[in-house]
């Protein structure tokens, strides 16, 4: 694709996200020739740094976070020429904005993006100040990072507040899971392969399980995480998005409107959780001290440096989708920090043979979408065991490793998303009604947990969560699939 020229303002430019993700992603896009040399990437933060100071920081970030085989000194130097810095509190409309304004192109047709990577309470003041300073041209867009609020009411405040200045077509709510190639590939698998789509329903599918397991603890993000917890941090956004891609009806076209309409229908069809459901169909837990890989790791409270906290770092939920396609198919979701391994997967287990002619009961077939790592897809098939003299069955696996299959590097999720925001393509961004529908389903669970309807459990660091999470599936005759 042709190189585009644009102005991209990063609000919160000294933060972790900018250094770890945004600058390295832009570097890759630049290296691939997608970014014109007249482009300006303008970091804005309150710190009093010179442009040279900021470029030094940016260079360090690239050295740390760009893959070694992508890094080269000449390209880095050229790229840093695009990077600017302005010291400014962008949530304050009254200060002197002239430093920023003088860097922005006066060409109204040139894409201008404000990427707000600050605390969500600053989103509305920032949008207000941008509007007040008359910086919104026809080609201006604002990107909002998650979390959009902490519940329905605060999400509405942000959406209303930002919406006073920006139209919905200009607001890009980012969910980096939609930037993952393997998440986008859910659509290709389902809607470009009739053999899958024809069995993609309650007639053939017994259950679906979505896992996002991490080995990291809460790290330095304690102050944010302790107020959020796993439900807000991972489920309200990432995992409900994955679920809606797995469950949605085929959109009439691959367009932002059609795709988001169909995702929305799934979010709305999630069965609301009553207090009774919350007691029986959810599990919440916090990691305690443990021995991942044989090494002692502290518990959450010690990581946090606080004597008490009831924040969940692990959860499992049994969800139901009330549609003709999915009636009677449980969707299990689980996610956690400090689990035994890092893996994000979607497992679709098919229904067993209605009548077995073999002595062995074949294992039901399962389709595994490996979102990360070891990106790929596999289908297990019951097969005749060639080693047995009698007719015995054994599982065999059809397995595609995407990196090998396509012999290409897998781009980081932010690369696609940043360039889509520049182009103004909303297909991979979240619409306001999706955010609201997600919160509508999440909020009763939050409130139920606050009332302790489902007590908090603990699990040792380095394990797959508490035993009650296994019972959640065992009750229905299923098990979590591990190491797949
Ligand atoms: C972020 C969460 O949105 O996603 C983090 O805030 C989490 O807590 C991260 O670690 C997981 O992203 P990924 O791409 O590593 O699965």
Automatic annotation (TrEMBL):
Q: Does the keyword Oxidoreductase apply?
A: yes
Q: Name one GO cellular component term.
A: cytosol
Q: Which UniProt keywords apply?
A: Carbohydrate metabolism, Glucose metabolism, NADP, Oxidoreductase
Q: Where NADP(+) is bound, by residue? A: 46, 146
Please give one Gene Ontology molecular function term for this protein: glucose-6-phosphate dehydrogenase activity
Q: Which SUPFAM superfamilies match?
A: Glyceraldehyde-3-phosphate dehydrogenase-like, C-terminal domain (SSF55347), NAD(P)-binding Rossmann-fold domains (SSF51735)
* PROSITE patterns, A to Z: G6P_DEHYDROGENASE
Q: Give the residues the record marks as binding substrate.
A: 176, 180, 214, 233, 337, 342
Give, as one word, the top-level EC class.
Answer: oxidoreductase
For this entry, list what GO says about its biological process: glucose metabolic process; pentose-phosphate shunt, oxidative branch
Entries under InterPro entries matching the protein: G6P_DH, G6P_DH_AS, G6P_DH_C, G6P_DH_NAD-bd, NAD(P)-bd_dom_sf
Q: Which Pfam families match?
A: G6PD_C, G6PD_N
Q: Please indicate if the UniProt record lists S-adenosyl-L-methionine as a keyword.
A: no
Tell me which residues make up the Glucose-6-phosphate dehydrogenase C-terminal domain.
187-481
- The residues annotated as the active site are 238
Give the enzyme's EC designation: 1.1.1.49
Catalyses which reaction?
A: D-glucose 6-phosphate + NADP(+) = 6-phospho-D-glucono-1,5-lactone + NADPH + H(+)
In which pathway is this protein known to take part? Answer: Carbohydrate degradation; pentose phosphate pathway; D-ribulose 5-phosphate from D-glucose 6-phosphate (oxidative stage): step 1/3
Q: Which positions fall inside the Glucose-6-phosphate dehydrogenase NAD-binding domain?
A: 9-185
* Family note: Belongs to the glucose-6-phosphate dehydrogenase family.
Q: What does this protein do?
A: Catalyzes the oxidation of glucose 6-phosphate to 6-phosphogluconolactone.
Q: What is this protein called?
A: Glucose-6-phosphate 1-dehydrogenase
Q: Which organism is it from?
A: Acetobacter aceti
* Gene it is expressed from: zwf
């Amino acid at each position: 694709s042709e190189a585009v020229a644009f102005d991209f303002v990063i609000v919160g430019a000294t933060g972790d996200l900018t250094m770890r993700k945004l600058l390295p992603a832009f570097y890759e896009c630049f290296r691939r020739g997608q970014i014109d040399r007249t482009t300006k990437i303008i970091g804005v933060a309150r710190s009093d740094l010179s442009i040279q100071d900021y470029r030094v920081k940016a260079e360090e970030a690239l050295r740390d976070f760009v893959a070694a085989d992508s890094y080269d000194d000449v390209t880095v130097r050229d790229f840093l020429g695009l990077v600017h810095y302005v010291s400014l509190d962008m949530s304050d409309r009254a200060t002197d904005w002239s430093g920023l304004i003088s860097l922005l192109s006066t060409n109204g047709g040139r894409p201008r993006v404000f990427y707000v990577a600050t605390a969500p309470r600053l989103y509305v003041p920032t949008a207000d100040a941008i509007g007040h300073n008359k910086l919104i041209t026809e080609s201006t867009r604002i990107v909002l990072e998650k979390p959009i609020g902490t519940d329905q009411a605060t999400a509405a405040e942000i959406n209303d507040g930002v919406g006073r200045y920006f139209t919905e077509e200009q607001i890009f709510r980012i969910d980096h899971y939609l930037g993952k190639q393997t998440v986008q590939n859910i659509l290709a698998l389902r809607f470009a392969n009739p053999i899958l789509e024809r069995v993609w329903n309650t007639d053939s599918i017994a259950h679906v399980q979505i896992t996002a397991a991490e080995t990291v603890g809460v790290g330095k993000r304690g102050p944010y995480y302790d107020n959020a917890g796993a439900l807000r941090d991972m489920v309200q956004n990432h995992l409900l998005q994955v679920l809606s891609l797995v469950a949605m009806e085929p959109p009439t076209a691959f367009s932002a409107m059609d795709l988001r309409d169909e995702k929305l229908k799934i979010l709305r069809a999630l069965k609301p959780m009553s207090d009774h459901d919350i007691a029986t169909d959810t599990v919440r837990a916090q990691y305690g001290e443990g021995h991942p890989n044989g090494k002692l790791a502290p518990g959450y409270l010690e990581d946090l440096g606080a004597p008490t906290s009831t924040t969940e770092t692990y959860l499992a939920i049994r969800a139901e989708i009330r549609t003709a396609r999915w009636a009677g198919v449980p969707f299990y979701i689980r996610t956690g920090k400090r689990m035994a391994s890092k893996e994000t997967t979607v497992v679709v287990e098919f229904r067993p043979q209605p009548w077995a002619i073999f002595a062995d009961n074949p294992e039901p077939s399962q389709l595994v979408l490996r979102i990360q790592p070891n990106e790929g897809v596999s289908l297990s098939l019951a097969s005749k065991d060639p080693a047995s003299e009698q007719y015995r069955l054994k599982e065999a696996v059809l397995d595609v490793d995407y990196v090998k299959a396509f012999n290409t590097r897998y781009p980081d999720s932010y690369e696609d998303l940043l360039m889509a925001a520049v182009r103004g393509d909303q297909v991979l961004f979240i619409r306001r009604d999706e955010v609201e529908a997600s919160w509508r389903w999440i909020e009763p669970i939050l409130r139920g947990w606050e009332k302790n309807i489902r007590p908090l459990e603990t699990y040792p660091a380095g394990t797959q969560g508490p035993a009650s999470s296994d019972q959640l599936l065992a009750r229905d005759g299923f098990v979590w699939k591990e190491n797949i």
